[in-house]
Amino acid sequence: MQNYQHKLLADLDQTGFGIKYENRLSAYTPPHWHQAIELLLFVKGTVTCKFENSTLRAKPGDLYLINSHEVHETRCSRDAVYLCVHILPSRMCLYVPEFDQLQFSLAFDPEDQTKANAYAQLMVHMQEILRQTKENPQAYRLEQQSRLFAAAAILVKYFSQAMPVEERSLQRSDMQRLEPLLEQIQLNHSEELSLDWACGEMGLNKEYFCRLFKKNMGVSYLQYLYQVRATAVCRELEISEDPISEIAERHGFKDQKMLSQYFKEIYGCTPSEKRKFFREVTLENREEQ
What we know:
There is one protein chain. By secondary structure, the protein is an alpha+beta fold. It folds into 2 domains: 17-162, Jelly Rolls (Sandwich), CATH 2.60.120.10; 177-282, Orthogonal Bundle (Arc Repressor Mutant, subunit A). 50% of the residues lie in helices and 18% in strands. It is built from 10 helices and 10 strands. The chain has a 4-stranded antiparallel sheet. Strands 2-7-4-5 form a 4-stranded antiparallel sheet. The longest helix has 23 residues, at 113-135. The protein is globular and about 55 Å long.
């Protein structure tokens, strides 16, 4: 996942679709949202996706959908592999004017044969997109586009409902207010971004800001900031041999105890244990080649 909260999706093309084939190494992504809808086909390993009031645990063969502006955080096992299709609502409005007013869900009664057949068709499109992406995305470009449009049409026809106007307006209003702040955190997470600074950026008193942030992101402001920092530390541990203390300081952790606390909450291990894990995986990959 790229820039951040809302996350900017570099894989989207001019048609409003994007395709990513992801192989994650025990990856964690802090709470975030996208303007695009995410359609995920899980291929290998496990992925846990946590929402405000629910948690999804995906296994190979599962297909999940995450709506636009839906805050979620993800944890991937070491061997997790999945296909991610992004669908940008604003672009789909060229074909279905009310597309950005729809909420999608793949849940349905197994006795509903019409939806069961539609779901099966959707799976076929996703599996073919996966095959084409792995083999040669350029050779299959036109066919991929046709399957992407077919998948979007199935979602609209069988798995959508209109979102209440009040709910839609309130949700997007909050997201738009938070968006500039969250992008600043992503780009400048190593700087001194205190709670007072965040309140000043938003022009809100502390009590109201804390309620607004927790309601929309599912964690407190400081929890979120430290999660972003810990995730950045983890990414650098995979590629850098610098001392952990230097990496921690580069990403805003002046206190290594604070880093260890958040790191263990997220990854279930210490930074040094994670670095050892990365080294073992690199060695295994070399031996397999």
